[in-house]
Amino acid sequence: MAKTRTSYRCSHCSHVVAKWVGRCPECETWGSMDEVTLAVPVTGRAGSSAAKVGAGSMIPTSPARRMTEISSTSSVARPTGVAELDRVLGGGIVPGSVVLLAGEPGVGKSTLLLEVVRRWAERSPEDVALYVTGEESAGQVRLRADRTGAVHERVYLAAENDLATVFGHVEQVSPTLVIVDSVQTMQASDVDGVIGGVTQVRAITSALTSLAKGHGVAVILVGHVTKDGAVAGPRSLEHLVDVVLHFEGDKHSTLRMVRGVKNRFGAADEVGCFELREGGIEGIGDPSGLFLHHRSDSVPGTAVTVTMDGKRALLAEVQALVAPTQMPTPRRAVSGLDAARVAMNLAVLERRCGIKVGSHEVYAATVGGMRTTEPVVDLAVTLAVASAVLDVALPPDTVVLGEVGLAGEVRRVAGVDRRLAEAARLGFTRAVVPRDTAGGERPTTAPRGMRLLPVGTVAEALAATVRSRRGRADPSSDARRPSDRRAETGESVAVP
Question: For ATP, which residues are the binding ones (predicted)?
Fold first, then answer.
């Protein structure tokens, strides 16, 4: 026998307390305590329940089997037909898995999923896709499908927000792929709470997960995000599903990225690139060209580096503009970069290399709407600012890699081989790399046709790129400052 007891459970960390509190004592989250009813077993005397373990146990419907007897062929990923999405998923969707795709409103989640269901239905006559929408009518989804060319006879549409009705559609259609757009609009009639609330979202996700595991149906859930970009709803939502994907994009750019956050069947650091167009969404297999300006002309204030987004190497162009100002506090504007690291790079450039930027406005940005906070961009930002101040362009065939320290040293970065291979593939013939990368215990081998320029300090990097070209443009070396001549010899230059 058992009796019930009312307790309160945190929706974020599942911590249980006896009385309601406004703030969870475990994770310190406000307003996350929900009332729950727990069953407490009643025994005749203390310790008798432990002695009678198994006395009232139930016979399992499916007995446990040896691991060697279980086949793994049923859990092989099946490609969706969208190559960039399959890249992030680890080869495709595993039957019986649950994928959560979260993103801001209007970023293109529904457009991408319509392309997925069309490609899925085109695979074979046995593949049927069910698209359940709780935010739009079936006619509105059909209009978008007509515009993007995602109409197929084996794609079924259902405009429902009741969970029991959705289960009925699954029984009638027998799909192999189910799309629920979105989980915050679904409602379970036997569960208390408002639509989109913590209790409803948790119960609906648990029910859909049981459906996927029990019937071997792949389920993709669309989730909303909060103001800070996190997945809306309880934290346990991300623990229940198998894969969590974030769909990112700037409203002023057509570039979209699907970033893997959690993946039980593959790498969790992959990223897929898409371009949202009027006629739909298309994957970009080689996105480096979107982040590079036309490289035939050399322009002062630009430098090219290679960033790693997951396991994918992407070339990024950093641009800087330096202008004098009469304002007591010069402006510092940054777009696509870490503002704190840019400010540090400016301080190193002025203190260690003698290039005055304190009385100038500095604008630094990346091309193509790319966002990166990787430390490898430090040297590119520093050289781009120096190039803008000296009005001398860097060689157009040079790529720059390296993290800048406060002492002016250039530190090594991870994945240099993969970065240099990507740069060489796009036609770059010279690379400025940290000295310990080129001559360390495991020296980096330059790709065929590429020359490495190892540097140990920012001053050496300036002498190898910006000031070397400045010296060729101005043969009167006596007219240059002593700090310039010292930098060309590789010495560290400091402001007196």
Answer: 103-110
